[in-house]
Amino acid sequence: MPKYLIAFNDEWVPEHTADELHSKSEASRVVTDDMKAAGVYLFAEGGIDASTAVFHVVNKDGTAFFTDGPFVESKEHLGGFTVVEVADDDAARYWAGRLAVALEWPQEVHRFPSGMTEIVERHASDGG
């Protein structure tokens, strides 16, 4: 079965009080508990933003080059994500919709490629 990333950027989340954030956490926990019961849940985490970036790393002449802090050119930062393994896009749409309603902020869904062949074919077809 395909795996899907359901994610949101921190910038999509409006300001909330501590009580409101606790309420959102509880609401999303209900959805992830339902995902677990359905056998589709793989992993989820949230509460991340630019301030949680520890470092970034790039290849510099075959050596890993580390810089502290976030990648300064980033305008958006991952806020949280859930990974599910479901039968198809419709099932991923269902779970993403449940999260969007529970959290009251947008979610974006990506289907992970099924393997290297799919990645290579996609890049070949778009000129990449």
Automatic annotation (TrEMBL):
It holds the Pfam family YCII. Coiled coil: none annotated. SUPFAM superfamilies: Dimeric alpha+beta barrel (SSF54909). Residues 19-98 form the YCII-related domain. It comes from the Bacteria. Belongs to the YciI family. This is YCII-related domain-containing protein. The lineage of its organism: Bacteria, Bacillati, Actinomycetota, Actinomycetes, Micrococcales.
